[in-house]
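Lecture notes, unit on protein representations.

Consider one protein chain, 429 amino acids long.
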Amino acid sequence: MSAPSPRTQQALRQRNLSLALRAVAAGGPLSRAAVAARIGMTRAGVAAVVDELLRAGLLVELGPGRPGTVGRPGSALALNDRGPCGLGAEIGVDHLAVCAVDLSGRVRARVAADAANRDHPPGPVLERLAGLIEQVVTEVRGEGLTPTGLTVAVPGLIARDGSTVVRAPNLGWQGVDLGPLLPSAPPARVGNEANLGALAEQRLEGGAAEHPGGNGEPGAGPADRPVPDGSGRSPGPGRNFLHVSAQIGIGAAVVTDGELLRGAHGFAGELGHVPVRPQGRPCACGGRGCLEQYAGEEAVLRASGIDPARARAEHPGPGGRIAMLAARAADGDARVRAALREAGGALGVAIAGAVNILDPEAVVLAGALAGLAPWVVPAVERELGRRVADPARTVRLTVSALGAEGPLLGAALSEVDAVMEAPGAVAAG
């Protein structure tokens, strides 16, 4: 029998490193014997793998394992909280943000700034973002962390090269390669904000709070919904869900059997440009009657009798207008409530079509929708009840506890996932 090829040996090594690292991430601290049992390797085989992960700074030894186990306790292994970390950044229409998360997914640094990015050329926007990235890198390096990669979340269509923004209507960008404008170290790539929000939802399983409404009246307000700290969590979205993210625009991500559905060109999930009124209002994408024209932030402001430009000036930042609308709705403002019902109805039409095609277990409402859920969700539920083809089908409608943070967290977590998938690359570095 011939010996395995070097390529096969390298792939096996990479697989074993990943399995061991993921085992500690999922159930640590663990002894070497416990890691071996979880991944189906001999203790001798695991010893070599663990030693490599320790040398690479991915794992640390905490000392003897828990008492009460059979035999001599081994050293407990845990993820290194002073090792590699992932960087995430977000370019919003009216803000920039950067964060760093360690291997356990804990946020170790975060900065944000209001920024009027709409119709501004990418160069100055990325230059300002670079300053925020440098600030976060300096902070985490001071804590002993080493950034291994950067993902930038953008509200638009991203080419499969992970660098080119094909079209971002709400930014006014089209056919722009951001690669040359991004820092060269650590390695950087660009991702769709809705896809990255879905990743955060999936990784922080149970971060979605079941909406208590259903009677047409507000349930728990945004401040009353559980946050992803283990209290009051719902079961999470599962392995088949539709993640709907709304800020100024509306995007969606489709997760099927635990994997992101990207489509032939990587553009799957453009829910905001699904026509809900085929002869309706013109949209920046060139179409008419798109969902964004009825359920996007600016559409809701106009329907509420509020000038969007004035609202941006008086309530800056990604959550300013949403907080204002939520406060007015909570105070009983009839016009705002009517606007939110209209937005929910339009959203329900689009989601019902997606549910009929995709048959997900759950629909997760995230972004600005999370802050307005008590007044939006009942109308969404009514449209789902009317339009889903099989009335016996049960689709859980949940509200993300991550709110508007999902894309930023997902961007950083995608870099942690890259380390978990290929820890050998870190070890080689």
